[in-house]
Amino acid sequence: MINPEHELHIRRKARNIWLGAILGAFVILVFAVTIVKMINGNQMEAFDHEVRPSLTVEE
Amino acid sequence: MTDVTFSLSRPYEAQPSDYFELLKPRVMRLSIFTALVGMLAAPVGVHPVIAFASILCIACGAGACGALNMWWDADIDRKMGRTMGRPIPSCRVSEGEALGIGLVLAVLSVAMLGLFANWVAAGLLAFTIFFYVVIYSMFLKRLTPQNIVIGGAAGALPPVVGWAVATGSIAVAPLLMFALIFMWTPPHFWALALFRNDDYARAGVPMLPVTHGTTATRHYILTYTFLLVPVALAPAFTSAGGPVYLATSVVLNALLLAGAVRLNRRTDALAAADKYRAERQFFAFSILWMFLHFVALLTEAGLRFAGLATQNWPVWF
User: Fold this and answer.
1) What residues of B are in contact with residue A36 (Cβ under 8 Å)?
2) Which residue in the set B16, B49, B56 is minimally distant from A14, CB to CB?
């Protein structure tokens, strides 16, 4: 008999759900921190191989 | 005839709770709490989201320490009654898994703390993990009876990391919080070692009662408790302290000293007769002692936030 769901997947179901939830929470956390840093006016740009006025130091 | 055997039972599949246990949640809880107090006691406020993310990173760093410690100490954990139920000795998690989880958590927690907060805090967290895993677990623990005296530095660093998250630097106040935990660790663990002596002797861990005997350990507990008292009182006279902390510390230290004097007067025969009652009480009280000191610091931070801090309180450090 061919089982559509392998027995291994059933055994690991709980930990796979947990891992998915942790990864999802991590994405939300990074997003939230990014929003906060942008609101606080942090410099979010970095050098990207071209000169941009926003990255030059004012004299 | 063949000597092939078949096992009909399925192999045990590690559950999320097994992996969580690998991170030493009780130690993690203490690290989270002391780091949070260090962060809130700092004169600079932190955005709640940044604070939450940073505390999560510190918790993961503490978890990495736990997993890597269990990976390295799996051989001695199998021999001690206190530790043989841990995930690796009880065959719920493999040593390779513990190593992998520990390394991933260590790298991720440091990198993310650097990005979320600042690189001073991240550097301190990296040093904490390195000190606990390499200096304490790999070298000191099996080498010298002073293992927990020096190794206590790793457990003492979270409030400094918390302070660094808020300020991006280190000051006297968090260093005194560090000293508080650092000086508290030896009497706390030696009290445990007194009633777990057989465990450590069987595993060959050179704890003080194993190498120097229990009488010397009782003297050491008293000496270190005496040394701990001024260190515990000093944060009262920093920017993080105040009268609430001072009053709490005076009462707690009087009780701890009384307990240490009592332990010093006891003999092994007396301790065995009442199943190490006083030693267990001292150990349990030392946990409460630590917790209440940091609760007092948290209270002082709350009072300052509410504008109720005592005016003209002497700040000497």
Assistant:
1) 47, 49-50
2) B16
pTM: 0.89
Best probe of the B interface among A33, A34, A42, A44, by most B CBs < 10 A, is: A33
Q: Interface pTM (ipTM) of the complex? A: 0.81
Instruction: Give the lowest-confidence range in B66-70, B144-148, B260-264, B282-286.
Output: B144-148
Contact criterion met (CB below 8 Å) for B93 and B22: yes
- A–B interface: beta-carbon pairs under 8 A: 27
Per-residue pLDDT tens over the stretch B121-131: 999 999 999 99
Which residues of chain A lie closer than 8 angstroms to B14, CB-CB? 15
Q: Which of B9, B13, B93 to mutate to test the interface with A (most CBs of A within 10 A)?
A: B13
